[in-house]
Amino acid sequence: MLFLSAVLLAVTLAGCAGGPIEEESKDADEVTDAAHVHPKASAKLKSVAHRLLHTPAPLPDWDTFVFPGKRFAAFEPVVMLEREALRVRAQSSVSILRQRFEPQLSRTGQLRFSWLVDALPDNADLTQSALADSPVRVVLAFEGDRQRWPARVHRLSEMSRLFTGEELPYATLVYVWSVKDAPGSVVMNPRTDRIRKLVVDSGTAGLGQWREHVRDIRADFLLAFGEEPGPLRAVALMTDTDNTQSRLTAWYGSLTLEGGTD
């Protein structure tokens, strides 16, 4: 399962509903077993995601991505500290909400996002496959020249396709909250260097507070990969606590992604 978890991080993360509900008790358990059910985003969740998460592509809708064999904790529209948000009550689970771009975005600009967490995964370590959990992530999946890949990455991409139905993106840049790595650090995925994590929050100092970030996507991709970014094929929100078997609650606020096609 550790290998499957690594593949998860590599895949293409990937009418009018009512208003947001007020934040409620954490006691309710919204975690399902993805081995037996494939929860799809509800019309209300898609409506709130469309209102809260802004990208250059109005379609397709944001939708959940459930990784085979992993527990899934739902994204729930709520209001948290007077802000509309999407809440994930994680419990040894993996939660992904993503939008794929069709056509891919050939130009990218700034990325603005906000998130809040009440705890960090127990003993998480982004450098170790067995402990590589994070309470919140914003994931950007890019296309590029796959001929530059070594043979081992082609094999990993094929295994990703077999397990998930999707090939490995050429490169994946992940904005992440780390338990211990300093902000500004670039952390390689322990299984493949095609996934690189850029730490924007670290440690417990910001717990329980809305954290705001404005990032230059091109500059961050250059920092992480040392080359120009290719077309952007997907953006995703991701909370994972499966490796550390942790329980926590994460909230995602507004997100704005600038970009376009030529």
Q: Which structural category fits the helices and strands?
A: alpha+beta
Coarse shape: globular
Binned strand content: 35-45%
- The run of helices and strands is HEEHEEEEEEEEHEEEEHEE
What is the distance, rounded to the nearest whole angstrom, between the alpha carbons of the first and last residues? 41 Å
Q: How many beta-strand runs?
A: 16
Average of per-residue pLDDT values: 85
Oligomer designation: single chain
Low-confidence stretches: 1-29
What is the CATH class designation? Mainly Beta
**Rg measurement, Å:** 17 Å
Profile the largest sheet: 7 strands, mixed
**How many helical stretches?**
4
Briefly note the CATH topology name.
Jelly Rolls
Going by CATH, the architecture would be Sandwich
What is the count of structural domains? 1
What is the topology?
Layout: H1 2-10, E1 21-22, E2 31-33, H2 43-52, E3 53-54, E4 63-64, E5 71-73, E6 75-80, E7 83-91, E8 94-105, E9 107-117, E10 134-142, H3 151-164, E11 171-178, E12 186-188, E13 195-202, E14 211-216, H4 217-225, E15 232-240, E16 247-260
Parallel strand pairs: 1-6, 3-16, 11-13
Antiparallel strand pairs: 2-5, 4-8, 6-7, 7-16, 8-15, 9-14, 9-16, 10-11, 10-15, 12-13
Helix pairs in contact: 1-3
Give an account of the 3D structure.
The protein has helices at 2-10, 43-52, 151-164, 217-225; strands at residues 21-22, 31-33, 53-54, 63-64, 71-73, 75-80, 83-91, 94-105, 107-117, 134-142, 171-178, 186-188, 195-202, 211-216, 232-240, 247-260. It has 262 residues and is an alpha+beta fold. The strands form 3 sheets. Strands 1, 3, 6, 7, 9, 14 and 16 form a 7-stranded mixed β-sheet that branches. The protein has a 7-stranded mixed β-sheet with strand order 4-8-15-10-11-13-12. Strand 12 (186-188) and strand 13 (195-202) form a beta hairpin.
